[in-house]
Write a structure and sequence with these properties.
Elements: E1 11-15, H1 20-32, E2 37-39, H2 51-62, E3 69-73, H3 77-83, E4 91-93, H4 97-107, E5 111-115, H5 121-132, H6 140-146
Parallel strand pairs: 1-2, 1-3, 3-5, 4-5
Amino acid sequence: MNASFDTSKPIAVGADHAGFEYKNLVVIHLNQMGYQVCDFGTYSADSVDYPDFAHPTAASVENNETAFGILICGSANGVAITANKHAKVRAAICWQKDIAELARKHNNANVLCIPARFISIQSAIEIVDTFLNTAFEGGRHQDRVDKIACS
């Protein structure tokens, strides 16, 4: 493991019905790499409401119970909007490895949001790996991140 986060804490994962299959494959991938996972659901492909899974996933990151989060839905917009309602969460929609890298390096993103309907599972896994292994650069980027919160 070459992670850029606290590996003593699990990774939070959540999805709606559109992200269910990808979530399961991401969980398997993370487990195979030796990571602990907190799976916040959903647990089937039946239609569900994404906030029911995005809120507990984001809350676990916000409360420092998990190292970071991964949320998956059709476009990633719904889960990202929901997760970003949590004060200490910086959720980023990533559809390419380069976006995931910059989200970590420049924005210190702590929740990765994946659009399952628009990328392949192989791309999703590569994005997860990039997110896992990219550290925040700090410096001038820290000044910007410090200006994000409204409270």
